[in-house]
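User: If only I could read backbone structure tokens as easily as an amino acid sequence. Those tokens are not coordinates but codes from a learned vocabulary of shapes. Could you go through the record with me and say what the backbone is doing? Here is the record:
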Amino acid sequence: MLKKMILLFILVGGLLSGYLFTQVPVLNINKLANSYVKNEYRNESIHYRIVHKRPRKWASLKALPKHVYYAFIVSEDWSFYNHQGVDLRQIYMAIKDHLNGEKLRGASTISQQLIKNLYTKSERSLQRKVFELFSTMYLENRLTKDKILETYLNIIEFGEGLYGITEASWFYFKKRPDDLNPKEAAFLAMLLPNPKVYSQSFRDKELTEFANKIVNSILNKLKVVKVITPEELDDYRDSNLSFEKTKVQSVKNKKQILEDEFFEL
């Protein structure tokens, strides 16, 4: 009886996996390999379109200082350049922590987060997880790591109505992303798990105790991977962030201000 149940489970699991694999957005991912993603914020929701022409706010990874994009790697996905889309060690640690009574945390890689943002909804289900897994594996097979990271940085949410590192850099610091210093990059990376909540520091014009702890942790990790020196770590850890001083506007007005100010330069 037990053997039959195991065989049935394997059969059903295989059929479900096969079905979900057929749902992988192969054509869209193939197009993405040689294209860009355009963010369109309409009716308080984000829409993504794959386009061949580079969007004017698109930040090229090659143009960014190493400390900018590595702030996101050490914060979100330490093993990004070494795994194939899924970090089994992170999954193991997340399960272990949960079994030890800690809150279940995410173990998604940057590649998985890109798939999640572009192709899946936010609900948690086994079906969505399997779909996400297959799609991530296909994404890793078709796109280079640099292309995945570049696309991720250009579509991820940094606050209400703020998508992509170009908008975020200009809104929070009135800088282009290639002008960010390590602490500013660490702040933007700190926002990602929950930007609407973690951006409280910007609203207060001063890092909260929690934000300061996370930002300094990211800076320390940048030192560990030798992106910044120990001397730079000390300097930036002791420095203050200079947030843009304008009052936070409504999403509509905020977007218009970003458009007007950024493209006047």
Remarks:
- The radius of gyration is 20 Å.
